[in-house]
Design goal:
The protein contains 11 helices and 18 strands. The protein is α+β, with helices and mostly antiparallel strands. The strands form 2 sheets. Strands 1, 2, 3, 4, 5, 6, 7, 8, 9, 10, 11, 12 and 13 form a 13-stranded mixed sheet that branches. A 5-stranded mixed sheet has the order 16-15-14-17-18. It is globular, with a radius of gyration of 22 Å.
Length: 389
């Protein structure tokens, strides 16, 4: 009934754009920008009787877990024409794309869900957050100018890449951005994007990228697209730089972990607004995903898993995860002491919920010893990312 298509024809661009407009309300004038950032070759279509009725985009990126970057597909722009909704088209599209990712060796997929029901039905589950914080500039209360601040004129990733990699190794869930994902952070066709490095220009200790937003001319909100400080001095200088906008600005809005350490440097942490958006992960290849993430280097041990997967049956079965020196190896077999659907494996893999919590939710089942082993092996900081895609 429905046909999944990897290669789309260039003359179908207008049709694809119109479907996205009806589904996601993406303005026509943004189509060229969206298409460029994703890449036409990364768009996938769904047909009915030869007609394009839906599609999606696939960013071939990476996602950091346990100090290692796992190849990841960031799924975006999933849309089905309204006359074909609730007929199984979206499930067909998602199932076929997961099959494609499996066959091309991508072990995990990540997305933001407009509706969780569809994606949970094909094995995705909540695995991390995007936390929006707002803090009045009057509450920053930091005065430190020991480091220099340098403006970055060109919207290129290179000045920021090393710092982002440093942060990713220390956290869970950050993306190894594609060129298109970097464009979304560093460029905006509708507003100036301000980009700065903190510390030595050649060896910076921090950065901030932001736009200025306001309903009228003043007061401004500094809308941070990304920022990080690799040292206490950089953190203090970062907040001082943001507070220096107080003559025309009212508040700072940014995205960080729920327990953002940068707030330990401010005089106050009374938010004017906090919003949380959860992203989902799908384990596409259980063996490869478990072997390519990192683990606490001081922890060793093994975990006997039993996995169910009704969409990608190749994942079904028992596995033994053996961890030593921060790396894992996986072999088939074992006792299956910890059992879960592939959905339940996603938050365990990402470290989103502790195993005891997952057991209490009914997402995993296992012996006390298996739950304890999983707690040690998957311990780490909360998974989060600063962007949406």
């Amino acid at each position: 009934m429905f046909e999944y298509q990897i290669a789309l024809q260039e003359d179908e661009a207008t049709r694809f754009r119109d479907v996205l407009f009806q589904t996601l309300n993406i303005p026509h004038e943004r189509w060229d920008e969206v298409r460029e950032n994703i890449g036409w070759e990364n768009l996938r279509g769904l047909r009915h009787d030869g007609r394009l009725i839906g599609g999606m985009g696939l960013h071939q990126a990476g996602q950091w877990f346990g100090g290692r970057c796992v190849p990841c597909c960031c799924v975006t722009l999933v849309g089905i024409a309204p006359e074909y909704r609730r007929k199984g088209a979206a499930r067909t599209l998602m199932t076929a794309s997961l099959r494609e990712l499996r066959e091309t060796g991508i072990p995990i997929a990540s997305l933001y869900a407009s509706t969780q029901a569809l994606y949970r039905a094909v094995g995705f589950e909540q695995a991390g957050t995007r936390n929006q914080h707002e803090l009045p500039m009057s509450m920053i209360g930091v005065e430190s100018r020991e480091l220099d601040v340098h403006e970055v004129d060109e919207p290129v990733a290179e000045p920021f890449q090393d710092l982002c990699t440093q942060r990713a190794r220390l956290t869970n869930g950050n993306l190894e951005r594609t060129a298109g994902l970097w464009n979304r952070v560093l460029k905006d066709p509708k507003a100036p994007v301000h980009r700065y490095l903190i510390g030595d220009r050649e060896r910076p200790e921090g950065f901030v990228v932001f736009t200025q937003e306001c309903e009228q001319r003043f007061p401004l909100t500094l809308s941070i697209r990304d920022m990080w400080a690799a040292s206490p001095a950089a953190g203090r200088r970062l907040w001082t730089f943001l507070a220096d906008h107080a003559s025309v600005g009212e508040k700072v809005r940014w995205f960080g972990p729920a327990n953002d350490p940068l707030l330990g440097l401010t005089a106050e942490c009374k938010f004017t607004d906090v919003q949380v958006l959860r992203w989902l992960v799908r384990i596409v290849d259980v063996k490869q995903a478990l072997e390519q993430r990192g683990y606490p280097p001081a922890v060793s041990g093994e975990l006997h898993l039993s996995i169910q997967d009704d969409v990608l049956p190749e994942n079904e079965g028992r596995y033994v995860l053996e961890v030593a020196d921060g790396r894992g190896t996986v072999r088939e077999g074992g006792r299956g002491d910890l059992a879960c659907h592939v959905r339940g494996l996603a938050p365990l893999f990402a470290g989103f919920f502790p195993p005891q919590t997952l057991a209490g939710m009914g997402w995993i089942e296992g012996t006390a010893e298996a739950v304890q082993a999983a707690t040690a092996l998957f311990a780490g900081p909360e998974p989060w990312m600063p962007e949406i895609f």
